[in-house]
Design a protein that fits this description.
The protein has about 325 residues and is an all-beta fold. Helices cover about 0% and strands about 80% of the residues. A hairpin with a 4-residue loop joins strand 11 and strand 12. The model has no long low-confidence stretch (mean pLDDT about 90).
């Protein structure tokens, strides 16, 4: 048998979301498909406020603080569509699931226009404007498998691959200054694999061994205030052992010691790799429905993001530049 559903929501004048889904079961197989789409338009929103810039050098002069008071309006537009398909096989002590999807969204044009007033008459500017647009598309596939090896032993594994292409452009200008343009074109590939083995000796205790790896590859073309092609890859591999102890009906304790290997490489610079311990502790005590005590402790190190470890310097406006740091290390 099967079922099909439709859903739509339209707000006047310019906001809509729509969904169509269908599900079909045949013997041990279940198939599903979903289509979604939406758009948003906000043609005029009044804006006002104040920006602060602290510790700024401009024209060889140091300013403790610079303020910009602005008053104006902004407009925003966005559109999105996606389609997803899944197939699931269910048998005794076995569940196999595969998924495929395609997502797309875009900002066809958004921006703002403001009248400005700068402290110390830093800029002889009466107004400023900004514009931006973007596009993004991403196909992906994945698999998820569950095996009951015995009443006490289970095996779980999953994998996924996705590709994404994005393009972004922006511009900023004050009335008596040059136009500042920036754009990027990026391709990204991601692949991940994870495996878990669980052992449940009793209804009060459980052990789970988890191993996983995740890899990303980027190629980013910058143009405008920066003109360069940047390639990098980054990934991590981790393993941990989780211990669950259900002390009684009111108390739960878990401990998860582990280890993580992190590595990344920006083309033209040295490779980075480090191995660090990880761990977490969790405790919950709920003696009754009105009282509950929870404590959670965690230790890990986070590697810098792709846009933080690059060596590109991008000018955002007349006072601000955005720069990465290829020598940046993971932080706890």
């Amino acid at each position: 048998g099967g079922v099909t559903k439709f859903y739509g929501r339209q707000q006047i004048p310019n906001n809509g979301n729509y969904t169509a889904s269908s599900k079909l079961s045949y013997k041990k197989m279940t198939y599903g498909i979903m289509l979604t789409g939406g758009y948003r338009r906000n043609h005029s929103t009044d804006t006002h406020g104040e920006d602060e810039y602290n510790g700024i050098y401009y024209n060889d002069k140091f300013y403790e603080q610079i303020t910009r008071s602005y008053n104006g309006h902004q407009w925003r537009r966005s559109e999105n569509m996606s389609v997803g398909f899944n197939a699931r096989y269910l048998a005794n002590r076995m569940r196999l699931t595969h998924n495929a999807s395609l997502g797309w969204n875009q900002n066809p044009g958004s921006g703002s226009f403001n009248t400005d007033k700068w402290s110390d008459n830093l800029f002889d500017s009466q107004w400023s404007r900004s514009m931006s647009n973007s596009k993004f598309i991403s196909p992906q596939i994945s698999g998820d498998y569950v095996f009951g090896l015995s009443p006490k032993l289970g095996l779980f594994t999953k994998w996924n691959y996705n590709y994404a292409h994005s393009s972004n452009s922006s511009e900023f200008q004050m009335d008596n200054s040059e136009l500042i343009n920036n754009s990027t074109e990026e391709d990204m590939h991601n692949g991940a694999l994870a495996l878990s083995l669980s052992y449940i000796p009793s209804d009060k205790t459980a052990l789970m061994l988890n191993v996983g790896t995740d890899m990303n590859w980027y190629a980013t073309q910058y143009s405008g205030t920066a003109n360069t092609l940047q390639r990098q890859w980054r990934g991590n591999t981790d393993a941990n052992l989780s211990f669950y102890w259900h002390v009684n009906d009111n108390m739960l304790f878990t401990a998860t010691p582990g280890i993580t290997a992190t590595y990344w490489h920006l083309h033209g610079s040295k490779r980075h790799a480090q191995v660090t311990p990880t761990g977490s502790l969790y405790f919950n005590w709920a003696p009754n429905r009105k009282l509950s005590l929870t404590a959670h402790m965690q230790y890990l190190k986070i590697a810098p993001a792709a846009n933080e470890s690059g060596n590109v310097i991008i000018r955002q406006n007349d006072l601000m530049w955005l720069a990465g740091n290829p020598s940046q290390k993971s932080s706890a």
